[in-house]
Amino acid sequence: MITGDTTGSIIGAVNDHIKKVLIGKDVDEFEDLMTAIQSSILKNTSAKAAVDMACWDLYGQLYKIPVYKLMGGARKSIVTDITISVNEPDEMVRDAEDAVRRGYDCLKVKVGKEPQKDIARLSAIRAVVGNDVAIRIDANQGWEPKEAVRILNGMQEKGLFIEFVEQPVKAHDFEGLKYVTERSYVPVLADESVFSPEDAMKIMQMRAADLVNIKLMKCGGLYNALKIASAAEVYGVECMIGCMLEAKVSVNAAVHLACAKKIITKIDLDGPVLCREDPVMGGAVFNEREITVSDDPGLGIKGIEGIRYL
Questions:
Q1: DSSP state letters, 193-239
Q2: pLDDT tens digits, residue range 65-111?
Q3: What is the pTM of this model?
């Protein structure tokens, strides 16, 4: 629903397009590999991200250095929020209480379809967790610009203390995003609006958002993610690193990026802790809210239990 990718399209893009521009090249020709991946086919960002991550892993292994150190090496560990999905208020309160008991001090609450009920949900959660727990909300493109300003300002006036709102308006509506950013008491983070370094640059130049979300599946991998981070450093715009409902392999790559760059100040990498099982050996250690990057070469993944290669 976000990237337009399917399992079949990803396999097809890799086998029929991306693979053809890489086979036979040396891993050491890294810049050429990265540009070849991005120019091999239009869009198909998840397929590009998969191959991009594999190349970074190989490059790190070649020089016996972890990827996060190749990219900057700012820190060894990060702290993530956890998502509270949209349900009835009492169920969301239970989920929030459970998250706080597990040590989380930052909740990302999904909103956007029922404004009045959303306020009731958030009020109930805030009453239970207190003001020491940060609450950020994700509207998932759910509002029109004027509606978003009214809702967000109303939330703050009710003392809900929202840290920021993620993508309040439609992805393509940069002017609407700017309208909300200029008038909302709640800081605005652009998510679905950012599919490329060019998108990020436009938003920063327009001052259409206060923060920018980097997701590897949307931008096509670490190579383009680094470009977004570099632009953010120039414009002084803090970034969040996020993920889809992904398991450990791809989220692990996002951890390396987050540990490499200080401009990434917000972490939303709870995908692996939402999974019932973790068959991935090696890589970052996900200990609830605390994530520690691996110092093994490359991305540090050793294998996946039970994987079948096609």
A1: T-SSHHHHHHHHHHT--SEEEE-HHHHTSHHHHHHHHHHHHHHT--E
A2: 999 999 999 999 999 999 999 999 999 999 999 999 999 999 999 99
A3: 0.96
Q: Nearest 5 degrees, angle CA 293-CA 228-CA 296? A: 20
Separation in Å, CA 211 to CA 62, 233, 240, 259, 266: 35, 12, 7, 18, 9
Query: What is the spatial distance between Cα 225 and Cα 284, in angstroms, rounded to a whole number?
Result: 19
pLDDT digits (tens, 9 = 90+) for 50-73: 999 999 999 999 999 999 999 999
Q: For the chain, what are the domain ranges?
A: 7-65, 70-304
Catalytic residue (choose from 48, 108, 215, 248): 215
Q: Are 183 and 150 in contact (CB under 8 A)?
A: no
- Concerning whether 43 is annotated as a catalytic residue, the answer is no
Cα 259–chain centre separation: 14
Please tell us whether the domain made up of 70-304 is placed in CATH 3.40.50.1440. Answer: no
**Active-site residue, 262 included:** no
**Residue from 110, 178, 261, 266 carrying the catalytic annotation:** 110
